Amino acid sequence: MINVFLIGKTETVRDKLTECYLKINKDSEYMLNVNFQYIQKDNWRQSLPRVPQGLVFFEITESDTKAEMLTIQNMLRIHRGLQLVLVTDSSIDYFEIARVYNIGNILKKDLFDHYVVRAITIRLMTGNIFGFKPYFPDGYTVGPLYKTVSGTVEMKDIMAFFEKEFLKYVDQEVNYKLRSYFYELLANTIAYSVVGITPDVRDSGLFDIPATIEIPEEKPFKISMAMDDEKYGFSIMDTSGSLSLQRLLIKLRRQSSIGDEAQPPGIWDLTGRGFSLLLKDNRLIVNIVRNSLTEVIFMHYREKALNKYESIIIAEIAQ
Prior knowledge:
- The protein is 36% helix and 27% strand.
- The protein has helices at residues 11-24, 44-47, 65-78, 94-101, 114-126, 155-166, 172-195, 199-204, 245-254, 273-281; strands at 2-8, 34-40, 54-60, 82-88, 105-108, 142-149, 151-154, 212-215, 221-227, 231-238, 283-289, 293-301, 312-317.
- The strands form two sheets. Strands 2-1-3-4-5-13-11-12-10-9-6 form an eleven-stranded mixed sheet, with helices on both faces. Strands 7-8 form a two-stranded antiparallel ribbon.
- The longest helix has 24 residues, at 172-195.
- The radius of gyration is 20 Å and the shape is globular.
């Protein structure tokens, strides 16, 4: 049995998560068998049981943010086996809260569904963080398709393969958009994983992606694609593990307008825009094994509204 808790105070979030787990418990593939409990925020000390591991959805409100941050701090100190997901208002600087407590999963209160909750539960409670499977509960209509990239290659040839073998399945109206997103992801992979530049060099704007790239046979990267009737999924997995949860949260925050901000604080930054674009128009998932692997997945839905959830789903584990 998987123990899942919501610590909050609004009925809307409680009812929505309850409905999600009623659907998730019918999942015949993973047999998650979730025991979902709602705990009033003021009673967490008395009501949150000591369990060896568990998943906590923690509601953050604009009116009580400072006290809620103190509660997270105390809860993590007492209950070391818990995994946390923030459920937050859009007006709150949730990136900063996540950065302070090293939390990689954030849902906006009015922008999540049982598919997102299911995927997060599988990732955090079963350890199955890599690949498309948690996000395609009904299987695939195409794929997963893979290509491993190594040796002497040219950027244009990788993109040509992507267009010929992956984009042929994509609706024409989103073809160019998805090509642009994939290019941003590919450029990041080559810069950090293959060439091995530091974040400071990338931030300086003095680095250009070389036309021809030498990828050691022992350090290949893999590009992948899958789809079903409602969405497309694309990913790149490299063997560097050079990205970090902290850096990603900082970069995403600098490219985001929160509350009454007229524009993102990092609007003139030279880096971070690619991930920000992926987040704002897709479902973005990042998996990191420090100094070993990085996998970035983005999924684009045919129904446009489903691309606007801006859920943060990041897993970082030690090697």
